[in-house]
Amino acid sequence: MAGFLKYIFRYRKEVVDRIMFYVSLICALTVIVHVGYITNPALAEHTDRAIHSMFYGLFVCELFRTLSSIFALNKIDVTHYSGLIVIFYFLLIGVVRLLDVHMLAFLTKEEWVYLGIALIFLSELSKRSLFFDNFYFNPTILFVISFIGLILIGTLLLMLPRTTLVAPLSFLDALFMATSAVCITGLAVTDISTNFTLFGQSVIMVLIQLGGLGIMTFTGFFGYFFSGGFSFKNQLMFGEILGEKKLNSVISTLLKIIFMTLLFEFIGGVFIYFTLDARTFETVGERIFFAAFHTISAFCNSGFSILQDGIRNDAYRYNYNFQLVLTFIFIWGGLGFGTILNIYTYFRTKTIAFVRQYILKKRHTYKAQAFRYNSKFILSCNIVVIVLATVSYFIMEQSYTLIPDRHSFGEWVTTFFMANSSRSAGFNSIDLNFLSTPTLIMVTTLMWMGASPGSTGGGVKVTTVAIALMNIVALARGKESIEFYKRRIAPESVHKAFAIIVLSILTIGLSFVLLNFSDPHQPMKKLLFETVSAYSTCGLSLGITPSLSPMGKMVIITTMFVGRVGMLTLLVAFIKNTKNKSYLYPTEKVLF
User: Fold this and answer.
1) 134, 157, 175 — which closes off a domain?
2) pLDDT for residue 31
């Protein structure tokens, strides 16, 4: 028996992993059917018993696999850590349920059983996701396929009967909602606060989280954690997806992105929790879920809310602390992971240097360029846009949407919230139909401009617009290159900026024309606003989304997807690269 186990776990471990994957898949599907489909109480009781049996069955299987593998290899390595954590989790839940421990009574809830099964399935799925390197996929194509796959899975989940309180969603409406959540847009054909159950709202929240960071980021993280490492090809693939040029930094970058996201969402959720009025919630659990949903939605710049009428709900319209917390969360999420990491590295370096020099009295060690050029550029652009947008909104809306605010503090909070939410977050604390025409034009421009590169926000990106404007100024002044912070912007960056801008205008223009054909009864102003919002994955609307025709919804679905993935990314993915030629043609200047 011992020899057989050693043979299996040294040379045929993939067979054991394959069996565990299919068993966990069956268990996960059973949970989904039980939670989202079955409405008959008698049948639900049977499936509930089956799920509990599967829970303990998976525990036994994982226990056998992990301990046998340790015995066969005569050591505990990194691949066993995940199994030991899962075993501890299952053991804890099982002991609490069997012994009825009063202090840990909250762990007896069914959701912890579902979470355990999901944990096993996620671990097995993540291991298999690393085998994409067996296929010769372009990483860009894999990135696009991952979004399509996540949207389709989300669509099927949202079509389950127990997702909604009344009638199940049609395929088109479910596809629209799933695309909007995965593409972190926020446009909705139905009110998730009144029409969705807790299960349905949870599905939307998970889709927002996975869509905001990218499903490949999550599968890469869990795949690395549960399998114990990356192959060289894995590192190349994820380096391309994450935009990380150094192969030895791919794993650390991946881990930092996940950790940083969860950390800031947790901190934001805590602040949101304490800005809420406890009297508006029946239980503490509802209050926690509300805070969790909105911190994820804000950090991912999705704009979804489980409040009826969104943030302009009567109970939250004048909760200025809540609005300020949301604003700082989605501004932070819109800065980009690279910028946030660089800010952290910069302050850590400065703090260590201060401690060494002034407290420990050691010799100062100089480190050049602790703050990267890209971070300086992105922060400068964001500060300029935030200040200009806030001041402009405050001036233009004095006689319009700022009238209901009772004092100057409220006016400035509403101004700060709306001016920054318009760029990508998509939350609104006022009715956009009452905006003045100049403000509406400004909001449309801000939506198109979007957030920062490498962030969860959409749009053409603020740096793209900045480079285009700086190029115009450079041409007007007779300069051959753009100069900023004592550096010259590379010509490739200028070319890419103009390509992104032109492609965005073409895509928005085409979508706008198609919407005018599909929904001729809708005002053109509202259709244009809807199109820009969809492409920029902002989510603001003038109220026409639910009344769009089926063809109009398909146009918006496609626009949201193209806006999230990027038109230039799609062209790069599906157009064959030109081979480098060993010659150059003479240069000619074209007349304009």
Assistant:
1) 134
2) 85
d(CA 507, CA 504) in angstroms, rounded, equals 5
Q: Does residue 85 fall inside a structural domain?
A: yes
pTM of the model: 0.87
Instruction: Indicate the residue type of 217.
Output: T
Cβ-based neighbour number of residue 49 at 10 Å: 10
Written as six digits, the tokens of 109 are 């809830």
pLDDT at 413: 93
Domain extent for 528: 337-574
- Tens of pLDDT, residue by residue over 382-406, are 999 999 999 999 999 988 888 887 7
| Interatomic CA distance for residues 229 and 111, integer angstroms | 30
Tally of structural domains, the chain: 3
Query: Domain for residue 588, yes or no?
Result: no
The dihedral formed by the CA atoms of 95, 98, 103 and 107, expressed in degrees to the nearest 10: 70
90-108: pLDDT as tens digits: 788 877 777 776 666 667 7
Q: Which residues of 15-44 are buried (b: 16+ CB within 10 A; e: fewer)?
A: ebeeebbebbeebbeebbebbbbbeeeeee
Structure tokens at 24: 């966990």
In a domain, 329, yes or no: no
Q: Is residue 417 in a domain? A: yes
Most confident of 58-72, 187-201, 206-220: 187-201
Picking from 157, 267, 165, 257, the residue whose alpha carbon sits closest to that of residue 214 is 257
Whole-angstrom Cα distance, residue 233 to residue 217? Answer: 16
Say which range, 158-162, 220-224, 458-462, has the weakest mean pLDDT: 220-224
